[in-house]
Amino acid sequence: MIKTLTFCFFAFASAAHAMGPWNSDCHGTTPCEIGERSYHVLEPEGWDGETPLPVLMHFHGWSRTGKHAQNSERIGASTVRRGVLLVTPNGANKTWDFWQADTDDVAFGDAVLADVAKRYPVASDKIYVSGYSYGSAMAWRYVCHSGNDVSALLGIAGSISQSETCDEAPAAVRHVHGLNDTVARVPLGQGDAAPLRLWRARLGCEDSTPGGSWQAREFLTLERTNWDCADGSVTVDLHPGGHFVPHGWIGRQLDELLGLTPSYP
């Protein structure tokens, strides 16, 4: 599980100062290989080669690959401008097995983060996990079993069953969903009118507070709801649209998590 990687993150980050600038033989369109599987990595612009990097591990949507997220203005362009290392695993047969708790894809995610820590100095307190659609469901599944050292889950239009019981959980959960999404239903939870029942129960959330409305583009307004929880925080942004990654959503979450002034793109 990801908890076992904490030592690796600190060890490799310390080694970076002794070794000088880091180099990786795989980045951009050249995949990093782990056995028969692989992932892609996209370095942020202006990185000095030494400063430990926040990491966003993003699970791609169905029938796509990690390269799609890196080439996306709504994902890759958001990380490179904010000093974040984007890590995009490739799903077997371009999909993810998130249906059951014992999926091998959780272990694959662990292996990816461990390999990244061998190649780059990682800011171990700034590990974020995101995904879109099937990839969002995979991100939920991943942090459900390897999430204790994850700073935030950023879910986009996909989830696992709200009746799941998770052994682990990230420090913060942020999710966005379209109210007219006909591909993946908004994760309400049976008998509960408020979204993200699974995480609100797992993190000990009680009363919600309105977070106001915001938009990165004038044609799409997102309405936010926040929960302060005993063991973390939960935020959901709902919009009137369908099944897509909203403009500026990833960037805004990273800005808020990193203490930056929200900007677009």
Automatic annotation (TrEMBL):
- Tell me where the signal peptide lies: 1-18
Highest rank taxon of the organism: Bacteria
Keyword entries, A-Z = Carbohydrate metabolism, Hydrolase, Polysaccharide degradation, Secreted, Signal, Xylan degradation
Tell where it localizes: Secreted
Q: What is its main location?
A: secreted
Listed GO biological process terms: xylan catabolic process
GO CC, sorted alphabetically, is: extracellular region
A GO molecular function term, named singly, is: feruloyl esterase activity
Work out whether the entry's keyword set contains Protease.
no
Task: Name the source organism.
Answer: Epibacterium ulvae
Does the record carry Signal as a key word? yes
Protein name, as recorded:
Polyhydroxybutyrate depolymerase
